[in-house]
User: Which sequence fits this backbone?
């Protein structure tokens, strides 16, 4: 496609962004009147039609605003209905740092971090957080390099990956990132419901009972809140953006409250008492932590006694054995940062599902016979815990690093703000997480940390018990922050899907590129809500977190890969402003992300990779072709260059020989292919997986014919696509067709990847008087392929050859092996039978025995030869003895020579007339130029050609020519045929008779092609011999070897 065609192709390009008013070449929007104002640049007037002046180029580049502003555009559209885009004004702090902070800090910090610290211990928790933060920091470095290597429009990470690694990787990872963002929305909504039903309003639960009831409550409330959020996003995204600052304030206030609470514990720890029976943690529900109390010198049992004694308050009641054997103790839940509890919390305490949360250093007397488990009394673990599972649950808390790059259109200086803001945000959040791990371990009792839902502290949020001035600061703050994060996910995910859909790389997603009149992605929002509902139906925060961890990790892995590939390739366009990157860092980040995927959950990792792989193959198979200058294309070029340099210039070993075919096509006046079946046959022959170059020649001068050459190339490429012929196309414009074919035979291919076989169609019109050069070009091509030591395949009756859709259910491929050609005749049927068109055909090999040959021994030898070649074929030896030359052969030879001589005479007389007329024209031109009009003289030439023609002279010349021609024609009819030609014709007639007898009904006949005569005078006779040899056969492939062995019996 030319640049002009590309400009006219529509208002949007393949980048899912409006087509910019390009300041570069071929910009049709430039006004023609301004081009020639400066007369001092008249020398460059021709170039100015397509190439702008540097001054106008710089002006356009300085005002380059080809970035979609994301949600800002929609806000302005709804508020004022104005189309112009407000100039971006956001700096690093507001535009990148704070959005990243808001996205990274979230639900896991408030709901799960204390539990992770309690379960894994401070040391292993530190390792978990450090690994995850290191992965995101390395990814941020790679992302900064990519984001500062040019303008990054909306689409964020998807845009960066797809433009760096190509549409296949971009689409696969973009969809993974979309799924990750969507499941993140489900996770935030589940977090919101957990805070609401566990800590704000436990009485709001619809279902009561065990674990299943809790999950059902999550599903019902989650579906309701999802619907409400989807409506809010649909009605007005601007409200979400206006509330974003409120949600961010809630997160920051909550974190400040945590640090304030930690400081307060140093001198005034809060009073949260934990009740333990032996070493077992009890659910605290406003009862006295004692078995009995003394009231007025009377021992009274407490509410705790009733729980273990089946509601029997008498002192002699039958109670739980463990309850009777162990004492009840009460300890401080938050002993404070100076208490030294950190050393107790250093080590992990992994447990199975349903285990009682225990304090290991307290004495406990085991009961000889365990009583019935009292589910409502003890604090139990709800899931089985182990190191890798905690990594999967924790990782979502470090995602959100793309928030800054997603807003690149809103930034004053994106190339400065994105690296600075993102890396600062990751550094800040990493410090917060790592410090929180140490502080939680130093301030809070281990059993409280392992109590996921705060049952031991009266149902309070565990992190809330540490906060100052009140636990409600954290509860309300975390509730609003999770709500905001859910809304942000439901806002961002549909836009990401819309960007992928508008790129057109995944055909079935194109419907999601449409939306409301102002660009709101309505259909994408519906799909996002549906996928989000799947996550909500899972209903468990701990089950959803590893799923989105996989998708985010895969996205980050490919960001690192993109940076590493671009750096290693040293692409000229790879010039990031961010200089603090290195391919080793990117590779380390990629390895860490891959390791984290399998650490989290190996089966989830395999599923995510399978999904990405399926999307990749689908885009590769069905997706639209995009050329984005991506790194994978660059990698392919480097690999191709390396491979070409490794391939020796000399011929390959016989075992590696395969037909590298140059297909010579004929085109009509409309530059359409005359014989499309030639490409079908090429595709059927390519079981050898060799190189295919499809070439054609246009007659003329390239400057005049380049548009026709482009059109011819497009036509051939489209036909190659239809015929499923994989290869390259090469069009040559030459002053003559013969020279063009010669150029193709000599120069097609590159280095060691050159063709070794030429495939062409038989010139059917060689006998027609209006096409005198077709047979000359054909014979010259035969000679040139022989000189170049290349094999030649000539398909006769090519239009009768099968298409790729046809199937032969039976029939034979007959090989007539007359002379040894290096094994081409053996190899070609084998390759053809690999294709489904010819698969059911049988291979038969015929060879000709002369009078002195032992035909029985010949057959045995040939069978043994085929056995060693591992080829299955029937063998037959045909005896063809010498006999008298028939009158038919003699007459056919005579007619051939007479016709040939007549054509020569006709051509000669025509050439003489043309030469004489040209001479007269030249003489007249010369006489006028020198002013010698009056002198009628003769020129001193050997034939004394006269300058003046009279009527008598003209009549005389005509009669003279006529007499000469008549005498020549009399000689033709009196001539005798050449004995050498008679012998050749005899061979052709006899062999044709034998072939017709055996192979007239064969699906394909392969014949040795005899070489052309050394004397060029007999070229037309050579064509006649080949015509006689193949007469009466439907499909014939004439094969001429390249002068080397192409098949071997050795392993």
Assistant:
């Amino acid at each position: 496609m030319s640049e002009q065609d590309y400009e006219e192709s529509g208002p949007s390009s393949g980048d899912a962004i409006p087509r910019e008013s390009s300041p570069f070449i071929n910009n049709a929007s430039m006004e023609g009147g301004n081009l020639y104002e400066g007369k001092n640049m008249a020398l460059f007037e021709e170039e100015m039609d397509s190439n702008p002046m540097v001054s106008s180029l710089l002006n356009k580049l300085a005002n380059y605003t080809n970035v979609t502003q994301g949600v800002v555009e929609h806000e302005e559209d709804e508020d004022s209905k104005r189309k112009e885009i407000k100039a971006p004004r956001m700096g690093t702090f507001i535009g990148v740092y704070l959005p990243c902070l808001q996205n990274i800090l979230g639900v896991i910090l408030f709901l799960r971090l204390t539990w992770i610290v309690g379960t894994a211990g401070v040391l292993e928790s530190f390792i978990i957080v450090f690994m995850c933060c290191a992965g995101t920091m390395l990814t941020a470095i790679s992302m900064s390099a990519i984001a500062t290597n040019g303008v990054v429009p909306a689409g964020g990470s998807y845009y960066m990956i797809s433009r760096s690694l190509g549409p296949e990787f971009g689409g696969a990872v973009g969809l993974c990132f979309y799924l990750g963002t969507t499941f993140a929305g489900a996770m935030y909504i589940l977090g919101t419901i957990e805070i609401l039903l566990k800590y704000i309003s436990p009485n709001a639960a619809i279902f009561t009972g065990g674990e299943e009831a809790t999950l059902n409550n999550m599903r019902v409330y989650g579906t309701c809140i999802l619907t409400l959020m989807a409506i809010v996003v649909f009605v007005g995204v601007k409200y979400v953006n206006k509330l974003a600052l409120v949600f961010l304030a809630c997160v920051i206030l909550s974190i400040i409250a945590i640090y304030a609470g930690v400081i307060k514990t140093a001198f005034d720890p809060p009073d949260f008492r934990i009740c333990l029976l032996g070493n077992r943690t009890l659910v605290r529900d406003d009862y006295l932590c004692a078995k009995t109390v003394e009231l007025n010198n009377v021992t009274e049992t407490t509410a705790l006694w009733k729980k273990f004694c089946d509601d029997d308050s008498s002192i002699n009641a039958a109670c739980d054995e463990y309850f009777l054997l162990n004492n009840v103790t009460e300890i401080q839940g938050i002993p404070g940062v100076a208490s030294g509890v950190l050393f107790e919390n250093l080590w992990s305490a992994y447990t199975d599902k349903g285990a009682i949360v225990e304090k290991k250093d307290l004495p406990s007397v085991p009961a000889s016979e365990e009583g019935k488990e009292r589910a409502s009394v003890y604090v139990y673990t709800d899931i089985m815990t182990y190191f890798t599972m905690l990594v999967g649950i924790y990782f979502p808390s470090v995602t959100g690093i793309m928030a800054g790059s997603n807003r690149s259109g809103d930034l004053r200086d994106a190339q400065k703000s994105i690296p600075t803001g993102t890396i600062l945000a990751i550094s800040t959040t990493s410090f917060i997480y790592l410090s929180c791990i140490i502080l939680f371990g130093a301030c809070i009792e281990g059993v409280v940390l392992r109590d996921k839902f705060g049952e031991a502290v009266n149902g309070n949020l565990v992190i809330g018990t540490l906060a100052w001035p009140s636990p409600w600061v954290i509860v309300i703050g975390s509730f609003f922050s999770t709500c905001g994060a859910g809304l942000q996910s439901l806002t961002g995910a549909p836009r990401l899907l819309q960007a992928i859909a508008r790129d057109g790389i995944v055909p079935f997603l194109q419907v999601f590129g449409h939306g409301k009149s102002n660009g709101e992605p309505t259909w994408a929002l519906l799909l996002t809500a549906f996928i989000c509902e799947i996550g909500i139906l899972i209903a468990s925060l701990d089950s959803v977190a590893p799923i989105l961890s996989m998708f985010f990790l895969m996205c980050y892995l490919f960001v690192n890969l993109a940076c590493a590939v671009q750096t290693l390739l040293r692409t000229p366009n790879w010039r990031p402003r961010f200089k603090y990157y290195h391919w080793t860092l990117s590779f380390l980040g990629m390895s860490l992300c891959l390791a984290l995927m399998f650490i989290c959950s190996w089966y989830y990792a395999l599923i995510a990779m399978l999904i990405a792989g399926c999307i990749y193959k689908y885009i590769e198979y069905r997706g639209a072709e995009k050329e984005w200058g991506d790194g994978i294309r660059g990698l392919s070029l480097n690999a191709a260059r390396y491979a070409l340099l490794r391939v020796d210039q000399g011929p390959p070993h016989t075992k590696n020989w395969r037909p590298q075919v140059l297909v010579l096509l004929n085109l009509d006046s409309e530059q359409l292919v005359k014989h499309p079946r030639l490409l079908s046959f090429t595709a059927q022959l390519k079981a050898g997986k060799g190189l295919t170059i499809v070439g054609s020649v246009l007659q003329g001068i390239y400057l005049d014919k380049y548009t026709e050459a482009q059109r011819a190339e497009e036509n051939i490429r489209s036909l190659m696509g239809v015929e499923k012929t994989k290869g390259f196309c090469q069009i040559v414009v030459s002053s003559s067709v013969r020279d063009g074919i010669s150029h193709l035979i000599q120069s097609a291919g590159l280095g060691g990847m050159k063709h070794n076989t030429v495939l062409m169609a038989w010139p059917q019109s060689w006998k027609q008087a209006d096409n005198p050069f077709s047979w000359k070009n054909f014979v010259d091509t035969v000679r040139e392929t022989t000189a170049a030591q290349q094999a030649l395949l000539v398909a006769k009756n090519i239009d009768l050859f099968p298409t790729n859709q046809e199937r032969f259910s039976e029939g034979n491929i007959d090989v007539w092996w007359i002379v040894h050609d290096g094994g081409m005749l053996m190899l070609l049927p084998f390759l053809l039978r690999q294709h489904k068109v010819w698969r059911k055909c049988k291979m038969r090999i015929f060879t000709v025995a002369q009078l002195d040959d032992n035909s029985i021994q010949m057959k045995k030898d040939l069978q043994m030869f085929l056995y060693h070649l591992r080829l299955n074929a029937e063998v037959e030896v045909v005896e063809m003895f010498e006999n008298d030359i028939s009158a038919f052969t003699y007459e056919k030879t005579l007619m051939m020579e007479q016709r040939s001589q007549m054509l020569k005479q006709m051509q000669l007389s025509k050439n003489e007339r043309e030469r004489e007329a040209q001479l007269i024209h030249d003489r007249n031109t010369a006489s006028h130029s020198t002013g010698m009009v009056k002198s009628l003289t003769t020129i001193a030439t050997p034939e004394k050609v006269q300058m003046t023609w009279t009527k008598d002279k003209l009549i005389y010349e005509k009669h003279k020519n006529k007499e000469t021609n008549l005498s020549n024609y009399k000689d033709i009819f009196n001539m005798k045929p050449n004995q050498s030609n008679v012998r050749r014709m005899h061979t052709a007639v006899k062999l044709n008779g034998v072939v017709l007898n055996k192979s007239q009904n064969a699906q394909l006949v392969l014949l040795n092609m005899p070489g052309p005569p050394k004397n060029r005078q007999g070229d037309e006779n050579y064509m006649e011999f080949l015509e006689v040899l193949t007469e009466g056969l439907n499909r014939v492939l004439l094969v001429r070897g390249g002068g080397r062995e192409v098949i071997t019996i050795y392993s």
